[in-house]
Design a protein that fits this description.
heterodimer, A: 313 residues, alpha/beta, Rossmann fold, Alpha-Beta Plaits, 3 domains, six-stranded mixed sheet, B: 284 residues, mainly alpha, globular
Chain lengths: 313, 284
């Protein structure tokens, strides 16, 4: 039932979404969303109300879906959602505890509900509780847990049945910096060392930057980008700061004609050029219109800047 | 401890068979309250009437008519006597279900527990059946179980004088009655529990349904005649059950009306549960 090493990076371990549309009574929530994911740490980014949680619920098969729109681990979620869910872990943002139970009782109970035999579930519950760092607190009632412990036990219950994919909805919500770092460390370890696919829905870009190798960016239910984080961070667009003198208007027009984006930032002209074309485009434009450059410096594009560019159009 | 020093191993199934999800839910829900001592005492208290009936039964056989006369229906070993016994257990059913049943769904709703349940390969039937069995179990523990034991006990102390009826028909009648009414009561209680997020309101609703409707129906019947007793929730079950046990009717209209009422609100409870607990969202 659990993910086997040879499952990883095969078609059966993938998530595929094709032209997914979903609307509540009147308002469209997801519009023509299409992507394919292979096991990795994937950040699901977007402003509030952009459809992140709805997309995760679609991946869990909790929404009425048309056939073949969402396929998880080779299962069409419209037809075989139950089968796929035995290999999916879900950590909800809100609530997600079963009061009246100790940590280990809750995790083993949910393991059994995922299809594990009772003894296996109990053994696994102890293992994953150790893994998330709650070993000392395993017999305490979950309603007495602190916020940090609650997030950890929610991660443990999502892991108990050894899922192939983990869906985490705001996993660092309400955590102090230490707790946040610990949670991100666990998620990174799961994705990079243990071969699990992890989708993290978050509005904290730093979390995605710290853990994810890919991002999906949603705005108003539309998928704006599906990119690897490294190019996004270092610049799917390369960005340069330029200081010089000459005919700035002509320089800017030449750059725009070459496909660059030009903006002013104080005394600097900020030029974004498509990745791979580098400074050559800028130098050619400057030479063509007699613009003398005193300084040209590459500026790193942060994920935040990239995200804002995407969502603000 | 750093993450890399902690182990995370992939699960290697032991090959044992997993239990059905509804049974996992039911087992956990049945066993949990038994860890509380006050609850255990309440369960023991609920068995006191059975012990009293058994004792009266024994002495009425030994001492003849006098104790039988004093014991009234307590000393009856016929079907109607056992039906009266089940009727007397009603207050225990009400209290036990208020304690065990009220939080069954309300607490999951309050804590977003459904998100955890339905992220597993679980159907709505698994969830409702599992939760319903918890309530049904405690109904049967204080109604059917003592009746079955008393029937065997009665057969033994009367040296078989009660015969076939005591050993087969009465237990059969009690089983049918307790299972039907228990299933209906469980579904109604689950529907009440699904209506709210706060257990205290579910308890109040349950008490109102169990005892409040009885009081209201009795007051209304003073002015509107015996038909006003249709508002008495619990009386419908015993009026309907009187047919099964061959006992005197509890209300002044045909028992079929009570059967129809019970059927109606049981179906209503199921429909309400289907609408309230949604593993898959419905979009109009």
């Amino acid at each position: 039932m659990g993910v086997q090493p040879d499952d990883v990076n095969t078609g059966c371990s993938a998530i595929s979404v094709q032209s997914l549309n979903f609307a509540y009574v009147s308002a469209p929530v997801l519009t023509d969303v299409t992507f394919t994911l292979h096991p990795a740490a994937v950040g699901l980014l977007g402003p509030n109300g952009s459809g992140k949680t709805t997309l995760l619920r679609a991946l869990l098969g909790h929404l009425p879906l048309p056939p073949a729109a969402v396929s998880v681990l080779g299962h069409d979620m419209a037809l075989a959602g139950r089968v796929a869910r035995s290999r999916l872990g879900w950590m909800p943002e809100r609530g997600g505890l079963l009061p009246g139970m100790s940590g280990v009782a809750m995790v083993s109970y949910l393991g059994e509900l995922a299809g594990m035999p009772a003894r296996d579930a109990l053994q696994r519950a102890h293992e994953v509780i150790d893994y998330v760092g709650l070993a000392e607190e395993r017999y305490r009632p979950v309603q007495d847990y602190s916020q940090g412990m609650r997030q950890r036990i929610k991660l443990a219950q999502a892991l108990v049945h050894d899922p192939a994919w983990l869906f985490l909805d705001e996993p660092t919500s309400g955590l102090d910096p230490k707790g946040r770092a610990a949670m991100l460390g666990l998620v990174r370890d799961l994705a990079t060392q243990k071969g699990l696919g992890v989708i993290i829905s978050t509005h904290l870009l730093a979390d995605a930057q710290a853990v994810c190798s890919e991002i999906l960016v949603l705005r108003e239910g539309r998928l704006l980008a599906h990119e690897r984080v490294a190019p996004a961070r270092e610049g799917a667009q390369e960005r340069f700061e330029i200081e010089g003198f000459g005919d700035e208007t002509a320089f800017a027009e030449r750059l725009r004609a070459a496909g660059a984006t030009v903006a002013r930032d104080g005394r600097f002209t900020v030029v974004s050029v498509p990745a791979g074309r580098g400074a050559a485009v800028i130098l050619e434009a400057g030479a063509a219109c007699g613009y003398a450059m005193r300084r040209m410096r590459r500026r790193a594009v942060t994920l935040s800047e990239h995200f804002l560019e995407l969502v603000e159009g | 401890m750093p993450v890399y020093e902690r182990g995370y191993r992939h699960w290697e199934p032991s090959g044992r068979a997993p239990a059905a999800p509804w049974w996992v839910i039911a087992r956990r829900g049945i066993l949990s309250p038994l860890k509380r001592r006050p609850f255990l005492l309440l369960l023991l208290l609920a068995w006191v009437p059975a012990v009293v009936k058994g004792t009266i039964l024994y002495f009425s056989v030994q001492s003849g008519d006098l104790l039988k006369l004093l014991g009234g229906t307590w000393a009856d070993v016929d079907a109607a006597g056992f039906f009266a016994f089940i009727e007397r257990q009603d207050s225990f059913v009400m209290i036990l279900l208020a304690i065990v049943g009220s939080p069954l769904i309300a607490r999951d709703r309050a804590e977003n527990g459904h998100a955890l349940y339905f992220a597993r390969p679980l159907t709505l039937f698994d969830y409702v059946a599992g939760k319903g069995l918890i309530a049904l179990f405690y109904i049967l523990v204080v109604t059917l179980a003592p009746v079955l034991l008393l029937a065997i006990y009665g057969y033994l102390v009367t040296s078989g004088a009660t015969g076939f009826d005591m050993l087969l028909l009465t237990p059969l009648r009690a089983t049918v009655f307790c299972l039907l009414t228990g299933a209906s009561l469980s579904l109604v209680l689950l529907a009440l529990s699904a209506a709210g997020r706060r257990t205290v309101f579910v308890v109040l609703g349950w008490l109102l349904l169990f005892s409040g409707t009885q009081i209201i129906a009795r007051i209304l019947s003073l002015f509107g005649g015996p038909w006003m007793r249709v508002f008495d929730f619990r009386a419908q079950y015993f009026h309907a059950g009187s047919v099964l046990f061959g006992a005197s009717p509890r209300l002044d209209y045909p028992p079929l009306i009570s059967w129809l009422l019970i059927l109606g609100w049981t179906i209503g409870a199921w429909v309400f549960l289907r609408r309230r607990i949604r593993p898959v969202e419905v979009v109009s």
